[in-house]
Write a structure and sequence with these properties.
The protein has helices at about 10-25, 30-40, 45-60, 70-85, 105-110, 115-125, 165-175, 190-205, 210-220, 230-240, 245-260, 265-280, and strands spanning about 130-135, 140-145, 150-155, 160-165. The protein is of the alpha+beta class.
Length: about 280
């Protein structure tokens, strides 16, 4: 197995307790949640490392000019600092690395997926007092500045380049084939950002059968979110069985079958059959 390596069970249990507590807090902290995800992925990220990552965000915020002006001036200041001076950006190859979804690694490498680079932009700008938020365009996450009537978008994956309306339209059309809709420009709540990050991790692991360990912790963190699809329990059950935890996987399949049975008894029976097959693997 290639690094990063997961933490020991007691450390993982503590991280998950804190993650569950944070996602249910009145104002979930995006940087904290991203760093807890990073610590679940990377056992080398200890408390000192988490603190150092938060301090790195603080230090970057301290290097921004004091109140540079309106939304466009803020976007330009972030582009100049993070994109040009510090070299934060992304490349196609970053989609192939788990580290591109882990905030502490992105801060160290200054490379990552669009959503994690946008987290860096948002967290640095927020600390400096900017009117900033993430914008979950289909297929490409960006940073937004200002109120809707004066909104400015920046693409951290491209070093924070300020986008024109045509640029944003092309990003959406390229990802979906459909035109840009104003609803796509709404600020993304922190928990929506976290869900999208975990979905990216699950997608990365799904393409790599040998990393079912990553798929499992990503699903289990997703299940700690206040709202999540019931089908995640089925995904977790399948992963447990694949990893040899036949009894635990079968029990999860039975529990999911009870949920499904309320709307589709035929599907529930098929899932109970899968549970029976999982138990038979012990013989």
């Amino acid at each position: 197995m290639r690094p990063p390596f997961p933490p020991p069970p007691d450390r993982s249990a503590e991280l998950r307790r804190r993650f569950a507590e944070e996602v249910r807090s009145e104002r979930p902290d995006l940087a904290t949640l991203c760093l807890l995800i990073g610590a679940e992925a990377d056992g080398a990220l200890d408390e000192a490392g988490i603190d150092a990552a938060q301090l790195a965000l603080d230090e970057l915020a301290g290097r921004l000019p004091f109140r540079p002006g309106g939304p466009r001036a803020w976007a330009a200041a972030l582009h100049e600092l993070l994109g040009e001076r510090c070299g934060f950006h992304g490349t196609p190859g970053d989609y192939q690395r788990l580290e591109s979804s882990l905030l502490h690694c992105v801060l160290r490498r200054r490379r990552g997926l669009p959503i994690l680079l946008s987290v860096v932009w948002v967290e640095v700008a927020r600390r400096a007092g900017a009117p900033v938020y993430g914008v979950a365009l289909p297929g490409h996450f960006v940073a937004g500045f200002g109120e809707p009537e004066e909104q400015v978008l920046a693409d951290p994956f491209d070093g924070g380049r300020v986008l024109t309306g045509t640029d944003a339209e092309l990003l959406v059309v390229g990802a979906t084939g459909a035109p840009l809709d104003s609803s796509m420009l709404e600020p993304a709540p922190p928990l929506d950002v976290v869900v999208r990050i975990l979905n990216n991790v699950r997608a990365w692991a799904a393409a790599r059968a040998e990393r079912s360990d990553v798929a499992l912790w990503a699903v289990e963190l997703s299940l700690l979110m206040p709202a999540h699809p019931a089908r995640l329990r089925y995904e977790r059950a399948q992963l447990l069985v694949r990893r040899g935890s036949f009894l635990e996987g079968a029990a999860e399949l039975d529990a999911y079958a009870e949920v499904v049975g309320a709307v589709d008894e035929g599907a529930a029976e098929r899932i109970r059959g899968e549970a029976g097959v999982a138990r038979a693997m012990l013989n």
